[in-house]
Amino acid sequence: MSTPSLLILPGDGIGPEVMAEVRKIIDWYGAKRDLAFEVSEDLVGGAAYDKHGTPLHDDTMARAQEVDAVLLGAVGGPKYDELDFSVKPERGLLRLRKEMDLFANLRPAQCFDALSHFSSLKQEVVAGLDIMIVRELTSGVYFGEPRGIFEEGNERVGINTQRYTESEIDRVARSAFELARKRGGKLCSMEKANVMESGILWREVVNRVGQDYPDVELSHMYADAGAMQLTRWPKQFDVIVTDNLFGDLLSDLAAMLTGSLGMLPSASLGAPMGNGRPKALYEPVHGSAPDIAGQGKANPIACILSFAMALRYSFDKGDEAARLERAVEEVLADGLRTADLLGEEGVAPVSTAEMGDAIVAKLEASL
Ligand code: IPM
Ligand code: MG
Fold first, then answer.
1. 162-208 per-position pLDDT tens digit
2. How far is CA 176 from the centre of its chain?
3. How close is the Cα of 154 to the center of ligand 1, in Å?
């Protein structure tokens, strides 16, 4: 079998420093688990704009289409706030998602025992939380046409279009049912069928797909009520499937239940390629955090756990993914905290690199 290939796009802000820690983990797997990757690295976001005048060079896009998986750090920063919309750092990420057709975005929100007191909610509400949001990522209001700012009479009108085809709903629903089947067997679909036709169609198609998954318990919620239930009693959920925009909002909400955005990975998956692997991009849920960039304060765990998701979903190495997740749990149980996780008495923060090294040490100890 040929060596699997990884394209690393560190991006902006804290992206490069958290990705440097992921490189240590990748190297460890190559050296110690006979799991070598052919790694290449390139620019995305503001970093790509600075060099090429575009947030994603065509050559990088082409490379992303060829590799077995893409790992992305973060994009964006205040330096790019004034740029034209078409070349903003975020456009690079959105182009990757769209052209790779990464329609299923998996965003787990898991509460680590050692961190359950960090949540703004009561500990009993979040302790042991383990839910998965499946967000549709390539359609809906993010990409629907018409869109733009137009003249209308003597004023302007801003337009975006929520648009979903049956097949777009069908495929993301199937991904969510498959996941639910492997997890707790429950799926909750969220839309606004009470006010949106696209929501009515969404619910209808999800119900239809559900007939192929009689073993999964399916429920529906309006997305606003879903937001409320997520904060009231999040443990009622197992897998949630929802559209692009609601998924953007609900996944930030779910992420914060766990106490820190610095902990949460994501996987964006498309259709299987010739080798059976899905097209895939893995990235932390957190952003580029320009305020702390370059200071060694960033938490590398979300990015490291994104690589764990790559091991599981792209390379069929669920046992090695679990090994890495255990290593993360152990360093947290030992009391190691990056600056985003402070607040406990007498705990001094460790740096980004110290956290990465500690996780490598736990991997080593696992052998
Ligand atoms: C996310 C982010 C992106 C989105 C931005 C950076 C374009 O918020 O991945 O959730 O809105 O999808
Ligand atoms: Mg978001």
1. 999 999 999 999 999 999 999 999 999 999 999 999 999 999 999 99
2. 15
3. 33
| CA atoms of 208 and 85, how far apart (whole Å) | 38
Q: Copy the structure tokens of residue 231.
A: 């904060």
The answer to whether 172 and 191 are in contact (CB under 8 A) is: no
Ordered structural domains, the chain, with CATH? 1-110+260-367 (3.40.718.10), 130-257 (3.40.718.10)
What pTM, to 2 d.p., does this model score?
Answer: 0.94
Token code pair at residue 197: 């036709």
Helix, strand, coil share (%) of the chain residues, nearest 5: 45, 20, 30
Probe residue for ligand 1, chosen from 85, 88, 105, 248 as the CB with the greatest number of ligand atoms within 8 Å: 248
- Per-residue pLDDT reduced to its tens digit, 321-358: 999 999 999 999 999 999 988 766 777 899 999 999 99
Give residue 73 CA to ligand 2 midpoint distance, Å.
14
For 253-274, the pLDDT digits (tens) are 998 888 778 899 999 999 988 8
Locate tokens 């529906």: which residue?
Answer: 220
Contact 240, 132 (CB under 8 A): yes
Nearest to 138 by CA among 166, 198, 88, 96: 96
Cα 119 from chain centre = 20
Note whether 255 and 264 are within 8 A (CB).
yes
Collapsed DSSP state (helix, strand, coil) of residue 283? strand
Outline where 258-341 has alpha helix (H): 301-313, 318-333
- Options 248, 282, 340, 362, the catalytic residue: 248
**Pocket of ligand 1 contains residue 93 by CB under 6 Å:** yes
The minimum-distance atom of ligand 1 relative to the CA of 105 is 9
Pairwise CA distance, residues 21 & 333, whole Å: 20
Question: Could you tell me which of 257, 174, 249, 250 has the C-alpha nearest to residue 218?
Answer: 174
Half-sphere exposure of 112 (CA within 13 A, CB side): 26
In a 10 Å sphere around its CB, with 0-12 CB exposed, 13-18 middle and 19+ buried, how is residue 274 labelled?
exposed
Supply the residue whose CA is at minimum distance from atom 1 of ligand 1: 248
